[in-house]
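Progress against Task 2.4 (sequence-to-structure conversion) is shown through the following example record, which the project officer requested during the mid-term review.
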Amino acid sequence: MIFREGQRRASLYMAVALAVFAQTVHAEVLERTSTIRGKTLHYKVVLPNNFDTAKVYPAVLALGGGAQTMNTVDSVLDRYFRAEAEKRGYIVVAPAAPDDQLVLWDGTDVFPDFLKQTLTEYKIENGKFHIAGPSNGGIAALEIAAAYPDYFQSITAFPGYLVEPRENKLKAISKICVFLYVGELDDDVWHNEMKSEAELLRARGGVVSYTVEKGQPHGLRSLAGSNAGRLFDRFDDCRHRGGFDEDS
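Structure tokens generated for the chain above:
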């Protein structure tokens, strides 16, 4: 009985030790606040498993939909980015709209200072981000990348489009991988704008993919949860091949 009790305690101690170890190597989600050009910017940072400050990591600037509050930041991280980033070794930075702005493309003056700040805090692959988001986040992703193209390697809008596809915006993103996704059941305005902009980008030599997700509404479940790997497959395509493989 004493021997068995000793075994039981030893097993319990081992389980506790393993749990503590797992917590130390598991990914972190940090909540941060910065003041940039007089604006208060709240954001979260997802660090990959076994994060090492000395290592270089690919990074995603993830943007929420809707009003782009911290609640939408949490939602977009949970649905689309966190699990896959932890597994694949990506850093994800997810800002909310500045406190005096409704959405991020109205607050683009916090960029590129926010990006420069992030690049000083983390070692980001090639000094460039993959920027991505749904709905308002997709619109903001395209608008921010068009304003500051040197900071981005790829743009993913699911869905999203440039508010006004002026020539200077199209030219700015024509050298960046652009991935556009829209639900088959979404409103015509999203289909029409996104398809048109994909054609405009291709005409300028852009690397662009326009994908209609079968049976999907505005909120694309086909890219969420266990399907979020599709987003990261495209990031990886752009990182390693400068292009993409078409979805099957």
